[in-house]
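Feature request, filed as a ticket because there's no other form

It would be nice if the structure record came with a short human-readable summary line next to the tokens. Right now we just get the raw output. Example of a typical job, pasted below so the devs can see what we mean:
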Amino acid sequence: MGMSRWVLFIPDKSHPYRQTIMFAGAAIFWNGLMSIFLYAAWYAPLRDMWIAKYGTATEGTIRSKRVRKGKSDSYYVGYEFKTSTGETINSEQSTTRLLHDSAVEGQPVTVLYLPSKPKRSLVVEFCSLKVE
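Raw output as currently delivered:
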């Protein structure tokens, strides 16, 4: 029995559960695809709002800038900060082109982070949220 038999299971027309199996496969594919959009549209913004509301503020420094070229370019700012326990965290945040262009390596910034998970952080000056 070869491995290819288990790679893609499409039952023949005489299989009693053919329609159920095909429907389940399509549903799994669709749900996987939709989960990507759900993450981008809901989870990521909610996570940033949570950090903005409950995060601890500290001073950080811009360490790098980069652009990911593609159909539409993506702009990122790399930064570093120290937590209240003294741990140094390096992270990166996506931003707009305008804010990316205004960033300068070595520039001091305000970073908000979750003390329980310090890698979850954002730079106030380069986020799309209004932080008060």
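Something like this underneath would help us a lot:
Strands lie at 56-68, 74-82, 88-95, 108-114, 117-123.
The chain has one domain: 16-132.
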